[in-house]
Amino acid sequence: METKHNLLIVEDEKVISNLIATTLETQGYHYEKASNGAQAMLAVTSHSPEVILLDLGLPDMDGLDIIRKVRSWSSVPIIVISARTEDQDKIEALDAGADDYLTKPFSVEELLARLRSTFRRISYMQSEQGEVSTVFINGELKIDFAAAAAYMGEQELHLSPIEYKLLCELARNVGKVLTHQYLIKKVWENVNVSDIPSLRVYMATLRKKIEPDRENPQYIQTRVGIGYKMNRL
Description:
Elements: E1 6-10, H1 14-26, E2 30-34, H2 37-47, E3 51-54, H3 63-71, E4 78-82, H4 87-96, E5 100-103, H5 108-128, E6 135-138, E7 141-144, E8 149-152, E9 155-156, H6 161-172, E10 178-179, H7 180-188, H8 196-210, E11 220-223, E12 227-230
Parallel strand pairs: 1-2, 1-3, 3-4, 4-5
Antiparallel strand pairs: 6-7, 7-8, 8-9, 10-12, 11-12
């Protein structure tokens, strides 16, 4: 089987590390393993992984510190795999710079689905490198940033300024989970707004305008208690 991508597994529990490694092997992924933070940082700098699968509870340092250190110089996607299940733990990891969060115990099917989503995002971002693109296309959705206009198919969407800002921020981070506070900061800029219910109202009105089937939304996925993600269709 042809090797697909190079990943880094950062996990101190051997059973889980071996499970992840076996899962990656069956799909043709190449990987390196680290069992603590020091090994992880060395591997990131020496092997340049395309994706990092990171446990937060390491013996020598907190995984959040690793995320912050890596983010100070690299945008490599980081998928957290952790036993910490509280919403606040997930929010802290995502705000620190993680791209996704998977809680233990997890299914190998879900892990592979998150990886596929991450690599689709990488592919999209790489296709944009070297080009000054003013148009974003995802399924039937099109955003013309230069004209400050959005369309569903051939029909222009009538969005409020807040709805348009939300849509653009999700589009620029397609495939990545954005927390409530991140969106509030970006959309309301320097205004000290922490009204998550208002954000939910605007997101609900935006969804009514872009989702063909409101009962089964395709474009915007809710991460309950955490935030939102735009799916790459």
